[in-house]
Amino acid sequence: MQTTPHGAPPVKDRITRGTPVGFELVGVKKRALIQLMGSRLWGRFNPNHWDPVYAQETGLAAPIQTGEMSTAYLSEMCVNYLGENYYRNARMVCKYVSSTQANDVITTHGVVTAKEPKGDGFRFTIDIWAEDQDGQKKTVGQMEADVDV
Amino acid sequence: MSVNSVPATDSLRPMTSVQVDQTREFVASLDEKSETYWDMVTIGDVLSRDLHLSAELVILYADAVEDFNPWYEGWLMNRWHMEGESPFGGAIVPPMLISHFVLSVQFDHTKPFAIGSIHTFHDTQIHKPVPVGSTVRIQTTAVDKFTKRDRRYVRHEVEVTDVEDATLYLSETRDILSL
């Protein structure tokens, strides 16, 4: 994937009307850092997300990353391929199927699974998921967006 | 980490004894005031809060998930406040930022805080880009409470609109797992 000088979503690899079903997105990779998991904007309000003592008291093996963080990772991947089409008439569905613990390395994935004619363009459906270093899925979902509609 | 022993407060990140004490005091303060989310919510409850999407808030969100897309930059170190640039003109808000804040509305901030609850699912419709600097009204309606595999869930429907002109930016279905 070609990147632009300042980190904006690359234009060259955007999903276009010619993109076929089966096209695979290159995702993003992040480490789940406890310092970020417990930041004020993210998980601090719920010690399940950052305090090992409280997490165990509530039946967790360790603090877990708030699912919204992996949604943000998936969102970043989708923006890289959909550009401005991500921000209008789009739909993002995520289900958190397993918890992410500190130091897990999360990689996002996506594959185009449907392409339906709509207006002058197409409605794309992309299966998206985030998995850890062992290949275990943490978040699964779908992204839908209009292209050239 | 063994699930049979009590983990140390500083088992995941280094702390001094002062920091450990502060952490335990903070957690205790939450617990003393909390009730389960299940008990906090009644089907039909409608809650609403206004959220100002300042440039600093957007940067705080994006940096914590290492998303450095310049379309979100209405603030930069050294330059400080700026209009920003995006395909829609000025800087825009990552839509999932607002989705994240739905939680703060659903936990009625006039009631004891319900810690220990976990988001499990969302279905988000992104209608329009949200300009950095907007103030949005997040309205949530509790539409269902259900038990599934011995776990309790609360479902909400959400609408996010601009407080000035009522532009619909986002709508959503969201589930929370309650203790």
Bin the strand percentage of chain A: 25-35%
| Distance separating the two termini of chain B | 23 Å
Question: Largest sheet of chain A, described in full?
Answer: 6 strands, antiparallel
Shape descriptor of chain B? globular
Largest interface: A-B, 52 and 50 residues
**Binned strand content of chain B:** 25-35%
Structure summary, number of beta strands of chain A: 6
Order of helices and strands of chain B: HHEHEEHEEEE
Task: Give the CATH H-level superfamily of one domain in chain B.
Answer: Hotdog Thioesterase
Return the average pLDDT of chain B rounded to an integer.
90
Poorly predicted regions of chain B are none
- Structural class of chain A comes to alpha+beta
Radius of gyration of chain B: 19 Å
* Secondary-structure-derived class of chain B: alpha+beta
- The CATH class assignment of one domain in chain B is Alpha Beta
What assembly state would you assign to the polypeptide chains in this entry?
heterodimer
Beta strand count of chain B: 7
Distinct helical segment count of chain A: 3
Instruction: Give the proportion of residues in helices of chain A.
Output: 10-25%
Short description:
Chain A is α+β, with helices and mostly antiparallel strands and about 150 residues long. Chain A is built from three helices and six strands. Helices cover about 25% and strands about 30% of the residues of chain B.
